[in-house]
Design brief:
The N and C termini lie close together (11 Å). The strands form two sheets. A five-stranded parallel sheet has the order 2-6-1-7-8. The protein is 50% helix and 17% strand. By secondary structure, the protein is an alpha/beta fold. The relative contact order is 0.22. The chain binds 2'-deoxycytidine-5'-monophosphate (DC). The site of 2'-deoxycytidine-5'-monophosphate has 14 residues, from helix 2, helix 5 and helix 9.
Length: 226
C-alpha cells in the first residue's frame, strides 16, 4: 500500500502531538514530535550554560548533541533521548517552555534540527508535528493539517496536563506562556509558524479526540488510495 507523509502544524497546545500520535498508531506510521527536538536542545543549552545568542558557542554545542527517539512501552509513545539520556520528563517543564521559542529562533539550531527531520523522508509513512513541517521540512507532504483551537480551550487542555505534575501551576502562567510562544513562533525571521498554502485548517475546539482522528484518517485514506 502507498505510504504518505502527514504534517500537523499549528499554535502551542492545540493537540498536535495527540492527533499525530493517534494517526501514526492507526496507520502504523512513524510519529515524530519535532517540538521535542527543540525542547531537548533547549534543555542541553540551559544545563550547560550555553549562550544561544553567541553563534560560536551554539555551533560548538550542537556538535555535542545527538538526538534520537525510543519507544516508551508504558505510554505507547516515543521518548526523546539526548546523547542517550531519556529527557522526556525534563523537556516538558515550564523552565524549558519559557525558553524554547528563543532557542528555536536561532538559525543554526533550526538548520541542525530540520536536517535531522528530513533524513526521515527516505522511508515514507511518517506523521510529524511542529510549526514548520508543512512549509519547510516536508513541503512535498501529501497531507498537511493546520490545527487550531480556541485560546481558552488550549489553556484548559495544557493546564489539565501540567497540573498533574506541578500542582502549583496557575492558568494565568500557562496563558502567558502560550501567548508568548505563539507570538515568538509566528514572528521569528526563519521559518515562522504559518499555514502552508495547501494545508487543511482543522479547528478542534469542539471535537472529541475520536472525531478528530476519524476525520483526518478519512482524508489520509483518500490520499493513500488516490
Ligand atoms: O510542539 P511544542 O510545543 O513541544 O514545541 C516547543 C517549541 O519548539 C515551540 O514553541 C516552537 C518550537 N518548534 C519550532 O520552532 N518548530 C517546530 N517544528 C516545532 C517546535
Amino acid at each position: 500500500m502507498k505510504k504518505i507523509i502527514i504534517t500537523v502544524d499549528g499554535y502551542s497546545s492545540c493537540g498536535k502531538s495527540t492527533l499525530a500520535k493517534a494517526l501514526a498508531k492507526k496507520l502504523n506510521y512513524v510519529f515524530i514530535d519535532s517540538g521535542a527536538m527543540y525542547r531537548a536542545i533547549t534543555f542541553y543549552f540551559l544545563r550547560n550554560n550555553i549562550d544561544w545568542n553567541n553563534t560560536g558557542e551554539v555551533i560548538e554545542a550542537l556538535k555535542n548533541i545527538h538526538l534520537s527517539f525510543t519507544y516508551n512501552e508504558k505510554y505507547g509513545s516515543s521518548d526523546i533521548l539526548l546523547n542517550g539520556e531519556n529527557v522526556e520528563t525534563h523537556i516538558r517543564e515550564m523552565a524549558i517552555s519559557d525558553k524554547v521559542s528563543d532557542v528555536a529562533a536561532v538559525k543554526e539550531v533550526r538548520e541542525f534540527t530540520v536536517a535531522q527531520q528530513q533524513t526521515n523522508t527516505a522511508s515514507k509513512g511518517i506523521v510529524m508535528d511542529g510549526r514548520d513541517i508543512g512549509t519547510v521540512v516536508f513541503p512535498e507532504a501529501e497531507l498537511k493539517i493546520f490545527l487550531t483551537a480556541d485560546p481558552a480551550v488550549r489553556v484548559e487542555r495544557r493546564y489539565a496536563q501540567i497540573v498533574l505534575k506541578d500542582p502549583t501551576i496557575t492558568r494565568e502562567e500557562i496563558k502567558k506562556n502560550l501567548e508568548m510562544r505563539d507570538y515568538l513562533d509566528s514572528t521569528r525571521e526563519i521559518s515562522p509558524l504559518r499555514k502552508a498554502e495547501d494545508a487543511i485548517v482543522l479547528d478542534n475546539s469542539h471535537l472529541t479526540q475520536q472525531e478528530q482522528v476519524d476525520l483526518v484518517l478519512q482524508w489520509a485514506n483518500e490520499k493513500i488510495n488516490s
